[in-house]
Amino acid sequence: MIRETITIAVDFDGTIVEDAYPDIGRPIIFAFDTLKKLQSQGHRLILWTYRKGRTLDEAVAFCKENGIVFYAVNNSFPEEEFDITHSRKIHADVFIDDRNIGGLKGWGEIYQQLTGEAAPAKSKTQKKGFFSFLK
């Protein structure tokens, strides 16, 4: 369970959206909801992706349209300048990527693992049958 804020690096293709590179795939269920919730709790989100140039700009704009503005993009902090003499590896406490061993967990499970909060209980809705009006 997180008791303090952390820095979370998040991949884009296959993680936030379905992989359709160089296009932008459909949002993965609960990805933006989870990221917004984590961000509202003070966690720093870094977009950490293979994309660059126009395709990176499109991904950043897509995320902004869906309510996420990243602390940094492909950098450890906003002011960092990329230098080819240094590793491109960024500093983050957690990396969320579809290329993890075992694949990407569901965003609900990711949120639960990071926060320790239980998943919301599903409401029990009963389907109405054809003759339900007789009850």
TrEMBL record:
Alphabetic keyword roster: Hydrolase
GO MF terms, alphabetically ordered: hydrolase activity
Highest taxon above the source species: Bacteria
Cited InterPro entries: HAD-like_sf, HAD_sf, Phage_SP01_Orf1
The protein, known as: Hydrolase
UniProt source species: Aequorivita vitellina
